[in-house]
Amino acid sequence: MATATPKPSLLVLGYVFFELYWPEPERMPEPGEELFLPDIPVGLGGAANAASVAQSLGLEVTLAFPKGNGLCDMALEGYLQNRLGLSLLTWPAQDNTAITLIMNERSDRCFLSKADTKAFSQVPSLPVKDVVLVGLHEMATMGDALQSMQQQGSRLCLSGGFQPELLQTLGDDPRFRFDLVFLNEGEADMAAPGWRERPQAFHRFTKDALVTLGKDGAMGYVDGQTYRVSAPAVEVVDTTGAGDAFTGAFISQWAQGRELEASMQTACAVASRMVGVRGGVVPDSDFLREFREA
To answer: Looking at the chain, which runs of residues are DSSP E strands?
Structure first.
């Protein structure tokens, strides 16, 4: 009897945020008044975005994050386990560990967030997986752990974020070098100035790099080759988590040995699907079915 080929495994490390979307009411309530609105959207974000997409597309995913015992912590744990079926690895942190308020401005979003900034200095022993995805903040305090996992065979990936100081010092830690990084254009400008004319600028901190271009698709610099793919035109509801969706989708294809340009095309298509809903977490198991079965 033939045995089933095990799914590639992915460990996603990062904060999981309980998200509240500022509803932009027509007017603010007066002092003492309670103003009822049709909806005040809530959701989850952070590391849960890429993790939910990668699992939906066929990887065995473990989501590792700090968690307290507050109301938000309990809500997100229940949703991640019961609704999304993710395997969770958590460790103690402040109650209501990570919360963010998302506000849509004319040209972009802005965020008002809180997080237990010391939580990633207390990470427990982590399982070794085929691929490890970590964020900028987590990377800054986890050098030894990342080095150990890479030495044991994990492919180490970085998901970017708007943290200029950390972007500008990528590559300064001699303990590890990333196998693949995911950045948007602005982040790439900070981390690897001149990357458009000289992609080798990425090699200071990573073997390969992918740069997302929003509605214009993505560029890849892999094994010394340059790739460019476009994104389908879609109606945008919320761009929150679009880059994470690209990251989770690409890793799902890359880890399963798919051709690189096709993997990028799938990642752009998945990100385009995700901007059609509010939030960056996959809403249900069937949402990305067509990409899983392609």
So the answer is: 9-13, 16-21, 42-46, 60-67, 87-92, 98-104, 109-115, 131-135, 155-159, 178-184, 206-212, 218-222, 225-229
